[in-house]
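Forum: Protein Structure Q&A
Topic: Joint prediction for protein chains with partners

I've read a bunch of threads here and the consensus seems to be that you should model interacting components together rather than docking separate models afterwards. I'd like to see that in practice. Below is the full input, 566 residues plus whatever partners are listed. Could one of the regulars post the assembled result?
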Amino acid sequence: MSSHFVVECQDCGHQTPYSPTSSACPRCDSQWRQATYDYKTLSQSLPLQLPGRTFDLWRYHELLPVRTPNPELSLGEGGTPLIRAANLGMMLGCPHIYIKDERQGPTSSFKDRQAAVTIAALAEAGITEIVIASTGNVAISYSAYAARAGIKLWAFVTSLVPLVKMREVALYGTQLVKVTGNYDQAKQVAAEFARQRGLYLDRGVRSIPTVESMKTIAFEVAEQLTSFLGSPAGSLDGNKHPTSPLHSPDWYIQAVSGGLGPVGVMKGFDELEELELVDRVPAFANIQAAGCAPMVHAWKDNKATAEPVRTPRTHIATLATGDPGRTYTYLRERMLNKFGGLFDSVTDQEAFRAMHVVAKMEGISVEPATAVAFAGLIKLVRSGEIKPTDVVVINCTGHTVPVEQSVLGEDWVHRVDLPREAYEGAEIPEDGLLAALNHVSVDRYPRILIADDHPHVRRLIKRILQAQGNYTLFEAVDGQAAVDLSQKEKPDLIILDLMMPELDGFSVLDALKNDPDTANIPVIVVTAKELTNQEKERLNGQIQHLMQKGDFISEELLEEVRSLVN
Ligand SMILES: *Cc1c(COP(=O)(O)O)cnc(C)c1O
Ligand SMILES: [Zn+2]
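Posted by a regular:
Agreed with the consensus. Here's the joint model:
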């Protein structure tokens, strides 16, 4: 039977039909092969067919290595939302940040694409038993799809993988093998096991269905961005194909372990360009955990091959691929020749902080591995690598269930201790209950007054503070309200705007300093105005810190606040 695609060797160019059981080029034995399709025909037919189709992964089935998609195996993969990160964008001064919410896949990570396509291809080929190695999420995803397809799965994981993830894998009926060693060693053990038993081994980035599955992220993002930003067709500024109907972002950001995601997403954008559906491709920002960042080290040293990290030093098990092998070399070449972009790393601490920011600002709870990408975003905006006008898509790769204690730290729950009698079933008078509630410690948080006549500035400052600490906040909409509230609430700190109608910031300061009750409250002035020397003189000795609006970034404000109230 002829197929809609062939497998082409990336080393010698030899083409063969696809067979899941052949893992290397018959001519040169290379394992680096990729699927190629009849793009010429597809560029005519596909654009006409897309509009009538469901928005899920199989929408693009002509570009996937499965002959007949089987709806019986589907769990609703793909078609995840693209969400505009308005609050994060406001904090960072980048209005075009979009989150591709892969948490909304069937098992809450973007590995669901990989599992859905791989299991479909293997089921189609009649394969009934397979072996994988995983840093956690692949095991969960493949387990779910393998269970559905009646395929027996052997999953090799390292002992770093959180227990809750292992238990989920076991629940699906997978044969779970815990390897005490690092991930690269677990992969070797899995490969040897598969070889001895003659079983299909998923080779990650070197398996055809895995790379093909990840392309669908690019396809979906281009369609979704176009519904946000409109079609670029007809616009003349630098447009290579003035008829291309779909939008590419300027940046695609992802947390990277083995690098399958970026390899696949690159291929997706490549194909969109080949099909003349987009006029350009994004730059890639590949972010690793600093404790296991072989690609970043090699990139920064301008090396074409990455030195493996033998002992990963990160708590983020999902990202602990120490030896990226040829994947790094491949990504680097593609980025230097076509895509552009960079590799960078963030610390576990930065990732945990980003987890708080994303949860508290956007209502999105992510696993630490995903937070690495968000911490990377923050870092790249701060360094100016990502420009305020850039359109950025960040792959929100996975959900955190459950949140680990180490991420929250102490004091993450309020306690209400009812009197002993309550346990014993006795009625307690209502005031007894209220007395217990009084111990809920909300009131012990530092109290901060924000005085600014612009509601959006108050909102921004509030969000920045709430995202990274516990504060009791008051808002004053003008100068008089600032003075009144300061006297009434005696805040621990005042964040004050200078330019307010009627009573301006200078007069507020005078009033505060003239009242012994408020004279000693520290003040941070935030102003949009370039101050004259005379004005600076007036503030001298009256305030603790002066900050320019517009270019103040959250970290600076937070550090000031922390140093003044704690
Ligand atoms: C697998 C995984 C990554 C890393 O992706 P690669 O493409 O394999 O480098 C990042 N985040 C999550 C949640 C993952 O499961
Ligand atoms: Zn070959």
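The radius of gyration is 28 Å.
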